[in-house]
UniProtKB/TrEMBL annotation:
GO terms for biological process: carbohydrate metabolic process; glycosaminoglycan metabolic process. Residues 21-171 form the Beta-hexosaminidase eukaryotic type N-terminal domain. The active site is at E367. Gene3D superfamilies: Chitobiase/beta-hexosaminidase domain 2-like, Glycosidases. Keywords: Glycoprotein, Glycosidase, Hydrolase, Signal. Pfam families: Glyco_hydro_20 (PF00728), Glycohydro_20b2 (PF14845). It comes from Candolleomyces eurysporus. Its EC number is 3.2.1.52. This is beta-N-acetylhexosaminidase. CDD domains: GH20_HexA_HexB-like (cd06562). One of its GO terms (molecular function) is beta-N-acetylhexosaminidase activity. Residues 1-20 form the signal peptide.
Length: 631
């Protein structure tokens, strides 16, 4: 039995050594030749092209040229590439990378009546990145010959060219000069080289358009520079959406035009506020790196802090004990039955939404506490006056707020409770984020809504950090255990979905709720774990070899991108001792190779999961289970 598995182990082991790209392209051919980067290396547009490149693409090119030399990442092998030194002396050198529009692109040149042609500018990355989530073109092709002839990236958009540049950057490693003191200027920088030329990638494109990361900046504040570092790292692994959970009951750090008092009285301090210029800086920085900023203002729950500036709009503000009136302290929710509060909310959301280029805007809708409204005299009086139930009032509130956003051209993004727990009318194009359990995605899809996977049982990065409630020493976090990268990597976006339902899946995201996170530990909590969903939703279920995704194959590549993150100033945590990272497979458990065991256990876990699911359908009536915390 052991012998029958040995060939599988060898195949996977070799695949891990052939390339270190993350996310791995959907198709990939590589060789074994060394290829140096010339000291005069340049990136140019195709000769004879009348294309007028946008400034943000030119900036992306400059960043790539800089990183090729500044990453200084040694190969993750024993000796960190020293064994390559002799071969590099005779290796070919690459002097040029050419960027071109492929034949499938929408023409950037039109023919006039007189037969002449008119050149048009390629749309900026920042425009392509914020198009409707289902219409973005990220496809690219890449060829890097082994003989030193020009490499080529072809795409049909500036965003596709950016994705190709990102892949190109990950091909290169660094070997320091043997004697920098006696080397000429070019040699003194050491050698930048690839070790698997030629490289051929034909039509790499994402399996899902939504590849996101969510950051909560309300529980604890994160300065602009920290957010931008997150965005740079997201771009490294081709993530496409930054879900910004910007405010919550604890603080309101967001400046909204016309509603400045919310931040003035709701932020932790005057230094912990995102000004309008800060917001635009973050949005523009993200878009130039191929990332759409999805801002969320969670309503009607999670809004206690609004009482600091507008107490007339908040029910049960600061009610105690808070655990009876809210999922987290402090208690307080928008008075959704009040027409004045509805109008206030519509104006507030519209004021900020119209300043954002994204076609998406989040309104939350999770964890609405009914007792808060039951104990609020104003809400009860409004319900009685209009002869409405709480659910009818919520529906009216939702129609008004969502309607205003739709008039601004926004698709509304909500948490799953709005689709599964409440009797509200949602537009067909509403995007529903599934967070309580991965098993709930099928229920959302059956209702015909588009799905974003954000399940707490796979993707919550804050789980396993211990409880944070003050008088619960020794308690675990509500979503224990810790969600390791291995656990997240086994997630199947299409599990239990029919082909029709699968078409509704936009993608997914990993999330950081910041009760126990701050700038000091942001990077170690997020990276490299958050890169896992980047590959799940770019590459899909199968790798270029045709094999299904496995943790064992992914490990060496995730090591590689983590080391590259560190070279770029990201404090990403190690996955193993460096001794293991330099020796793939040698830290596996004894007996049957652990990568085979990983594959077997993944399959066994899916069988058990299916068995439990079928038994639950046959023996019990399905009931929802809501967590104690988040979003």
């Amino acid at each position: 039995m052991k012998l029958s598995f040995v060939p599988v182990y060898i195949t996977l082991h070799v695949v891990g050594l052939v390339n270190a790209l993350w996310p791995i392209p959907r198709n990939l051919e590589t060789g074994t030749s060394l290829l140096k980067l010339s000291s005069s290396f340049d990136i140019q547009f195709e000769a004879g092209s009348s294309l007028s490149p946008p400034q943000d693409l030119l900036d992306a090119i400059s960043r790539t040229k800089h990183r090729l030399w500044s990453d200084k990442l040694g190969r993750l092998v024993v000796g960190r590439g020293e064994d390559d030194r002799e071969g590099l002396e005779s290796a070919a050198s690459l002097s040029l990378l050419t960027l071109a529009l492929d034949s499938h692109s929408q023409s950037t040149t039109t023919t006039n009546d007189d037969g002449s042609s008119t050149s048009h500018s390629l749309l900026p990355i920042s425009v392509e990145a914020v198009k409707d989530i289902g219409t973005r073109s990220e496809e690219y092709s890449l060829k890097v010959p082994a003989d030193g002839s020009p490499a080529v990236i072809k795409a049909n958009s500036s965003l596709g060219l950016l994705r190709g540049l990102t892949t190109f950057e990950q091909l290169w490693y660094w070997l320091p000069a043997r004697d920098a003191g006696n080397a000429d200027e070019g040699d003194a920088r050491g050698a930048v080289y690839a070790y698997q030329a030629p490289v051929v990638i034909e039509r790499d494109y994402p399996a899902f358009p939504y590849r996101g990361f969510m950051l909560d900046t309300a529980r604890n504040f994160f300065p602009v520079e920290d957010i931008k570092r997150v965005l740079d790292t997201m771009s490294l692994v081709k993530m496409s959406v930054f879900h910004w959970h910007v405010v919550d009951s604890q603080s309101f750090p967001l400046t909204i035009p016309g509603f400045e008092e919310l931040a003035q009285k709701g932020a932790y301090s005057s230094k912990e506020i995102y000004s309008s210029s800060d917001v635009q800086s973050i949005v523009e920085y993200a878009a130039e790196r191929g990332i759409d900023v999805l801002m969320e203002i969670d309503i009607p729950g999670h809004t206690a802090v609004i009482a600091n500036a507008y107490p007339e709009h908040i029910a049960c503000p600061g009610a105690t004990p808070w655990s009876q009136y809210a999922n987290e302290p402090p208690a307080g929710q928008l008075r959704l039955a009040s027409s004045a509060t509805t109008n206030f909310t519509v104006s507030m959301l519209s004021s900020i939404a119209q300043t954002l280029p994204s076609t998406m805007f989040g309104t939350g809708g999770d964890e609405i506490n009914t007792k808060c409204y039951q104990k609020d005299p104003n809400t009860q009086e409004d319900l009685k006056r209009f002869g409405a139930t709480l659910e009818k009032a919520l529906d009216s509130f939702t129609q008004s707020t969502h309607g205003a956003l739709r008039q601004l051209g926004k698709k509304v993004v909500v948490w799953q409770e709005m689709a599964l727990d409440h009797r509200v009318s949602l537009a067909n194009d509403t995007i529903v984020t599934v967070w309580v359990s991965s098993k709930h995605a099928v229920k959302v899809a059956k209702k015909g809504f588009r799905v974003v996977h954000a399940p707490s049982d796979y993707f919550y990065l804050d789980c396993g950090g211990g409880g944070w409630i003050g008088n619960s020493a020794g308690m675990n976090s509500w979503c224990d255990p810790f969600k390791s990268w291995q656990k997240a990597y086994t997630f199947d976006p299409l599990a239990r979905l029919s082909s029709a339902e699968a078409s509704l899946v936009l993608g997914g995201q990993q999330l950081l709720w910041a009760e126990q996170a701050s700038p000091e530990n942001l990077d170690p909590i997020v990276w490299p774990r958050a890169a896992v969903s980047a590959e799940i939703f770019w590459t899909g279920s199968r790798h270029p070899s045709g094999q299904f995704r496995t943790v064992a194959e992914a490990l060496h590549r995730l090591h590689d991108v983590r080391f590259r993150m560190v070279q770029r100033g990201v404090r990403a945590i190690p996955l193993q001792p460096q001794w293991c990272a330099l020796r793939p497979g040698q830290c596996d458990s004894g007996g049957l190779p652990s990568m085979v065991w990983g594959f077997v256990l993944q399959k066994l876990a899916k069988v058990i999961e299916w068995y439990k699911f079928i038994v639950s359908l046959l023996t019990t009536k399905y009931s929802e289970h809501i967590g104690f915390n988040e979003p």
